[in-house]
Amino acid sequence: MLISLMRVLVTLFLITSPLSMAANDDLTRALQASQQQEFLPVDEAYKVELQSEQDTIAIEFSIAPGYYLYRHRFSIIDSTGNPVIFDIPAGEAKNDEFFGDVEVYYQFVDLRLNLNNLSDTPQQLNITYQGCADAGLCYPPETIETHWDPSSQHLKMGPLPAATSTNDQNTSLWLALILALAGGAILNLMPCVFPVLSLKALSLLQQHEKHPIQHGLSYTAGVVISFISIAALMLSLRSAGEGIGWGFQLQSPIIIAALSYVFFILALNLSGFFEFNISFSGAGQSLTQGHGLGASFATGVLAALVASPCTAPFMGTALAYALTQPSLIALSIFGALGLGLALPFLLISMAPNLAKILPAPGMWMQSLREFLAFPLYLTVVWLLWIINHQSNSNAVAMVMAGGVAITMGIWAWKNSPWHKIISLSLFGIALSILASPQLSINKSSSENLQFDESQITQAISEGHPVFVNITADWCITCLVNERNTLSSQRVETLFAKKGIVYIKGDWTKPSPTINNYLNKHNRSGVPLYVAYYKNQVTILPQILTTDAVLNAFGE
Fold first, then answer.
1. Under a CB-based contact definition with an 8 Å cutoff, are residues 239 and 363 in contact?
2. Torsions phi, psi of 442, nearest 5?
3. Residue 345 near residue 200 (C-beta atoms within 8 A)
4. pLDDT band of 389, cuts 50, 70, 90
């Protein structure tokens, strides 16, 4: 009864009032909003159609009564993360409770893409918009996936197909292989690989190995086979529905603990606590002293394990492509990544005059050997720190106790007549710790940053630029970037000056939310840095620089 009376009064008012047409429209929309029993889903409030014309593509938005779209919230981003230029008409001026003085659209609006601004090759175009209801609801930004097909001159709904022809597949595959090879080679410059490479360099200096090419090939085989094995396991788990990415093995406290044992044993050997001259330690001997081809193979395996969580330039594009391909192609790309990591040492081993360049062995080599133990001890400390973040301090204490058991087992092997029984018992204790329930993911740990994309949309809706940092404790590249770049005075000043919201996601532990965000930006691992500024989304390089951050925010 009350609503019927309101309708009569408003109708009489509109007929007799001298208000302008714009004011009448405002009253009509307000009345329609007041009659709504509930808000529409976003795809019903704003319906999108794509129309191809002679020289342009029209992206038509039909807007439900009582709803509107913001002019400044429209953006179109291509497959590389770059904005696409489009034409949009002027909107209606409005003082909005969310954004202040803005231009908005009621009923409909068309975006127009000039075909000359589009590539001659297929590409994905993500169209982002944001709207609100007069009754007070503001939707988060919404993104529509479309793809440009130059052969038909049409923009189509849905993501870009993996490939459109055999030639395109071959071109993309060769490019991905080259990028993977280059990225793997750059991995040698990452601090995560240094401890292992220092071991092999030491063996090369100490032994002036005979048949260096064979050792180089063995080392390469260890790296490549390990990379392919890790990739095969990852692809199998992903196909089974697990939300994981590259470097996933270091999300397990058990694997971290096992690696800490390996590095601790190697450090003890370099410090002179014992020499590898007993039956169980052939692999370890080769790791530090380079005796036998199995030595170099084992070094390659260890290098792959510690390098896999790191990312380098070019790797992101190659791995993202690999994860969209059939298994055989994907594994070939991961194999190229391993070959790139092994390539520098392989090339050195193929240089016949290398022995003439290297300094002659002497007492200084013993000092160098003892010095190289300290990076390994620091690596163990770092691994224990990761375990503390993934599990708890009790797990760290247990792993440290296992290290003591291993040390005592090695001592007993050398000094006790019952060395075999005592040593194997102590080694068994250390291994049993790896199966302890304490070495499990602590999901309730306060150290795990709960990442949610709604944090991004909320900050953007409030008019703030956003910087997203997806990181992990086991990613040394991430830690170096945070220490050298994100903590620099220039970046901190920039964030304060522009009111940039800093959002950090921690992938140290498994997180399906973070994995989905990585996939959304065509990344399979960390680090990932994304800047949201003035309707532009910029993915920054993995080796982060201060200038790159400043440029992303217009400085």
1. no
2. -90, 95
3. yes
4. confident
Q: How far apart are CA 93 and CA 344, in angstroms?
A: 62
Q: Which amino acid is at 474?
A: W
Q: Are 126 and 143 in contact (CB under 8 A)?
A: yes
Domain extent listing, the chain:
2-35, 42-157, 166-250+280-361, 453-552
Name the percent of the chain lying above pLDDT 90. Answer: 18
Instruction: Look up residue 414 and give its two tokens.
Output: 């050398």
- 283 CA to centre of own chain: 33
Type of residue numbered 253 = P
Spatial CA neighbour of 253 closest among 425, 86, 387: 387
Considering only CA atoms, give the Rg of the chain. Answer: 30
Q: Is the pTM of this model over 0.90?
A: no
**How long a stretch of residues is the chain?**
555
Domain 42-157 homologous superfamily, CATH: Thiol:disulfide interchange protein DsbD, N-terminal domain (2.60.40.1250)
Sequence-ordered list of residues with C-beta below 8 angstroms from that of 103, at least 6 positions apart, any chain: 70, 71, 72, 90, 91, 92, 93, 94
pLDDT for 138-168, tens place per residue? 888 888 888 887 767 788 888 766 543 333 4
453-552 falls under which CATH superfamily? Glutaredoxin (3.40.30.10)
